[in-house]
Design goal:
Layout: E1 2-11, H1 15-24, E2 32-36, H2 44-47, H3 53-56, E3 62-66, E4 79-83, H4 102-110, H5 118-128, E5 129-131, E6 145-147, H6 156-167, E7 191-192, E8 195-196, H7 199-204, E9 213-217, E10 219-227, E11 230-238, E12 241-253, H8 256-266, E13 269-270, H9 272-277, E14 284-285
Parallel strand pairs: 1-2, 1-12, 2-9, 5-6, 13-14
Antiparallel strand pairs: 3-4, 7-8, 10-11, 11-12
């Protein structure tokens, strides 16, 4: 089995992984490994905004997850695709740009997540985007991520829809990502120059040539390597071969809300009863963490 050594190992080249690969490799002295199970994001169906339903429904570009039967939705099983391609879900999603409500961030800090209140996060939102109307107290115009509202609501039905919302008693807002989140208003999209503005396109493409950044596609992470309770590397499989990658500094899991906990469970980190039932050796008992479906190991 081949053994490699890096300073940072990033598992998952989605929205977070692409940004981290970009930022961490800015220092030429840091060797960064980025692992992605999927492959290239250069398909016209990924680049073209109007083709958005194709990549999210294509096995090549997305994990085709489904929920269990939802009791409040007539027991339907809901489709939950997750990106399996460079750019992750930012390469297969509907490109809707929504930051979330300011009070949600404030509640995070009130619950103990110091530094995650809205005013602390706002500068990073501004740093990330290039808003088509320019910079103001809430928006940025120097970032890599292109954000606009499509065709300036050229279709008259768009404005009629917003007006109908007001007539029904709802508020109106010019920008749901600024001072007033509530209300009917234009939808903002991560599109630049008519092309999907994914994390891969905006953060990874400009730095792929860096000699200290290694990007491995078609790589499936199998487990986190541990020394005691310390993560020291990752074991992954690529082209039929198994590889051990050691990290001098950090192992970063950015495989999404399904992939990351699944990998930790495969590594023996999670609820001990769940792990034992699946025949996985318990390394660190972490109750209420991970996937709890009876067949989680089979994925």
């Amino acid at each position: 089995m081949t053994t490699q050594t890096y300073d940072y190992i990033i598992v998952g080249a989605g929205s977070a992984g692409c940004v981290l690969a970009n930022r961490l490799s800015e220092d030429n002295n840091q060797r960064v490994l980025l692992l992605e199970t999927g492959g290239s994001d250069k398909s016209i169906f990924i680049k073209m905004p109007t083709a958005l339903s194709i990549p999210m429904n294509t096995d090549k570009y997305a994990w085709q997850f489904h929920t269990e039967s939802e009791p409040y939705l007539d027991d339907r099983k809901m489709h939950c695709p997750r990106g399996k391609v460079l750019g992750g879900s930012s390469s297969i999603n509907g490109m809707v740009y929504t930051r979330g409500h300011a009070k949600d961030f404030d509640q995070w800090q009130q619950s103990g997540a110091k530094g995650w209140d809205y005013q602390s996060c706002l500068p990073y939102f501004q740093k990330a985007e290039s808003f088509y109307l320019g910079k103001d107290n809430y928006r940025g115009n120097d970032g890599p991520l292109g954000v606009n509202n499509g065709n300036e609501m050229a279709n008259p039905l768009y404005k009629v829809f917003i007006k109908a919302g007001q007539q029904a008693g709802y508020a109106a807002t010019d920008d749901t990502n600024a001072a007033q989140q509530e209300g009917f208003g234009p939808m903002h999209m991560t599109v630049k120059d008519g092309v999907r503005s994914s994390a891969s396109r905006e953060y990874l493409d400009p730095v792929k040539s860096r000699k200290n950044l290694t990007i491995v596609t078609g790589a499936l992470a199998e487990r986190v390597l541990l020394e005691g309770t310390k993560a020291v590397g990752v074991k992954y499989r690529v082209n039929g071969s198994k590889v051990k990658a050691k990290a001098n500094k950090e192992v970063i899991l950015s495989a999404g809300p399904i992939g990351s906990p699944h990998l930790l469970q495969l590594s023996g980190i999670g609820d001990s009863d769940t792990l034992k039932a699946a025949g996985v050796e318990v390394k660190h008992h972490l109750p209420m963490y991970g996937l709890h479906h009876p067949n989680w190991l089979a994925w």
